[in-house]
Design brief:
The chain is built from 21 helices and three strands. The protein has about 400 residues and is mainly alpha-helical. Among the domains are: about 170 residues, Serine Threonine Protein Phosphatase 5, Tetratricopeptide repeat (Alpha Horseshoe); about 35 residues. The protein has a three-stranded antiparallel sheet with strand order 2-1-3. A hairpin with a 5-residue loop joins strand 1 and strand 2. Helix 7 packs antiparallel against helix 8, helix 15 runs antiparallel to helix 16 and helix 16 packs antiparallel against helix 17. The N terminus is likely disordered. Bound molecules: zinc ion. Zinc ion binds next to loops. The site of zinc ion has 9 residues, from loops. This is Lipopolysaccharide assembly protein B. It holds the Pfam family TPR_16.
């Protein structure tokens, strides 16, 4: 049963509802008795809702509405039910009919406007929904709820400036956890500016992103990319190295950028020193793998394999083992290579099965990094997979 309790409570006074619940739970002869002052038909409708029989509930409420068309609560409950069932046109008609009444109290009118806004959102009519939520203004019981919906609309429509404004109003009203989301909006704007060749504006947005969330990895990566494009190697290194402190799970994203900058400066050994520090401090797979790659290139496969074997005995990992077998296979005699081949093939397949990225909120798995989860739409919840970051 996914109806919000709010809908149920609209139907009855709370005291009557709780009394009736107790009677119903006890299951005694009085279970279906009606509390004084409550229409027994309401209770029957409520029963249907509790039993998840929304069709029956809708039939009953519709019949009741024909008899008693003045009941605001019934209109709201019925409209909400229709919307949930996907019958958006009927929901819109009910809510419009309600708003047209001159006798509504202000809170009732605001609630009906809010519901009508939700109907339009559900129908994909974002412009109209935006107008309705905008009407709810900055005050009143429904203004915060409307602002949350507005933020969702702006996000959907990629109107990042408006989304930032809505989120900042929500933050001023006490929703403190929106900083990282506002930082992502600024990153979106930075990427747009960067693509359009507006470097200064892009930099300004990156500074704002880091102001709202100093752990914003994405801002550091964009900054590193811009510096690489401008051949500003030191700035690229500064931005790339920042990622290790912001969120070590994302180090693997920064490493190719760092390697490019260090190599362009003709100082490929320095990155190895830095990686060693990071790896000793954090014990992550990403710097370890990067070190093995660099060692193989700079010192040869024997050194790289020896180093990796020592690390793997301390901290086993599937990706590390696959890399180790690959290095061993390269150095082995032809006969040994034949023996290692099936082991390597199995390990390779196991590593390929690991998701590269996974959403910590909904479990979405993918091979591409998304800053906003394509499945649950949460920001910054998609992280490098456990094996990559372990
Ligand atoms: Zn998700």
């Amino acid at each position: 049963m996914d109806l919000p309790l709010a809908v149920l409570f609209l139907l009855l006074p709370v005291a009557a509802l709780s009394g009736w619940f107790i009677g119903r739970r006890r299951g005694g002869g009085g279970g279906e008795d009606c509390p004084p002052g409550v229409n027994p038909e309401y209770l029957r409708g409520l029963s249907y809702l509790l039993e998840d029989r929304t069709d029956k509930a809708i039939d009953l409420f519709t019949r009741m509405l024909e008899v008693d068309s003045e009941t605001v609560e019934l209109h709201l409950a019925l409209g909400s039910l229709f919307r949930r069932r996907g019958e958006v046109d009927r929901a819109i008609r009910i809510h419009q009919n309600l708003i047209a009444r001159p006798t509504l109290t202000r809170p009732q009118r605001e609630q009906a406007l809010y519901e009508l806004g939700l109907d339009h959102m559900r129908a994909g009519l974002f412009d109209r929904a935006e107008e309705l939520f905008g009407e709810l203004g900055e005050r009143g019981d429904w203004s915060l709820a409307a602002l949350r919906q507005l933020r969702a609309i702006y996000e959907q429509e990629k109107e990042w400036d408006n989304a930032i404004r809505a989120a900042r109003k929500l933050m001023n009203a006490g929703e403190s956890d929106l900083g990282p989301v506002v930082a992502q909006y600024h990153c979106e704007l930075a990427e747009i500016d960067r693509a359009a060749g507006r470097g200064r504006e892009a930099e300004r947005h990156l500074r704002q992103a880091l102001g709202f969330d100093r752990h914003c990895v994405r801002a550091s990566l964009i900054e590193a990319d811009m510096a690489l494009a401008a051949e500003a190697w030191r700035s690229a290194i500064k931005a790339g190295r920042r990622v290790a402190d912001q969120d070590p799970e994302f180090l693997a994203e920064a490493l190719p950028r760092l390697r490019r900058a260090y190599e362009a400066m003709g100082r490929p050994l320095e990155i190895l020193h830095w990686l060693r520090e990071v790896e000793e401090g954090q014990g992550r797979a990403a710097p370890l793998m990067a070190m093995v790659d660099l060692m193989e290139r700079q010192q040869g496969p024997d050194q790289a394999a020896l180093f990796l074997r020592n690390r793997l005995t301390e901290r086993p990992s599937l990706r590390g083992l696959e890399r180790y077998v690959a290095l061993t296979r390269e150095r082995a005699e032809p006969g040994e290579q034949r023996d290692l081949e099936p082991v390597y093939t199995i390990l390779e397949r196991m590593v390929a099965d690991q998701p590269l990225y996974q959403c910590t909120h909904c479990g979405f798995r993918g091979r591409v990094l998304h800053w906003q989860c394509p499945s649950c739409k949460h920001w910054t919840t998609v992280k490098p997979g456990a094996e990559a970051a372990a």
